[in-house]
Specification:
mainly alpha; 2 helices; elongated
């Protein structure tokens, strides 16, 4: 189904975005940014990761509704899977 493919693309994009933020935060740490800045950037990256998880879970729910299938609370995107905390 086309919509499922689009959702999978979004999942991959959000994962890449999260990884890119982690790398940039590490670069900022090496460049000597203040701990206050690093904490704020890490919290922002975490907030975006968590928001993506919520967004993608709802998208999956509504795709199931469109398909008249199981609308279980299955997560398509787990923000904690495969990545470490940015802090």
């Amino acid at each position: 189904m086309k919509i499922q493919g689009a959702l999978e693309e979004v999942v991959l994009a959000m994962e890449r975005l999260g990884q890119a933020f982690l790398k940039e935060i590490a670069s900022c740490r090496q460049a000597g940014r203040s701990e206050e800045d690093l904490k704020r950037l890490s919290q922002g990256a975490e907030a975006m990761r968590d928001a993506a998880g919520i967004y993608l879970t709802w998208a999956h729910h509504y795709i199931n509704e469109l398909n008249a299938g199981d609308s279980s609370e299955e997560k398509l995107f787990d923000p904690d899977e495969g990545s470490s905390s940015p802090g």
